[in-house]
Hints:
By secondary structure, this protein is mostly helical.
Amino acid sequence: MINREKALEILQQNMQNQNLRRHCYAVEAVMRALARYFNKGEKSSFAKASEDKWGLVGLVHDADYEKTKENPEKHTLLAIEWLKNAGETDSEIVSAILSHNFEHTGKNEPKNNLEWSLYCCDELTGFIVAVALVMPDKKLSSVSVESVVKKFPQKAFAAGVKREQIKMCEEKLGIPIDEFIKISLEAMKQISGELGL
């Protein structure tokens, strides 16, 4: 597995938009938190390894987005090429990154906790940012689970966010939506400075 520094280099070389980068940092933080959630009780060395892996998947999942946004069927395929060229050989990482865009590529429908976690939290991070931006101070510290839940059914709010994708956390991961929001929100608050929120 390549290290975080190498993954960050790939991301920053290929993604110039600061908000898109921040989305990747948010997904990385949430994926690390979800790895900890699923690793409760595991031996620390195993838990640490999987937390690093899940974080890496979150960090680079959209690395090629700027270059493929006009061709969604190519999204993730280019990022995988870059990762392999950088020496990434972990098939779980490759499969997970491919899985979050399976609807456009037809490849790798999510099948395990790693892949469904990415698929569900990808949209949720954007929704949480949208909630933060309507707070008077525009800060994550002002966002609560309740404020996210309250906005969730409002279709006009953050209209582009696929709520059905987020709600799959219940069926596919066995995590109630409120708890999924809590895990994600707390993880994002930990890196609020990096997110500019």
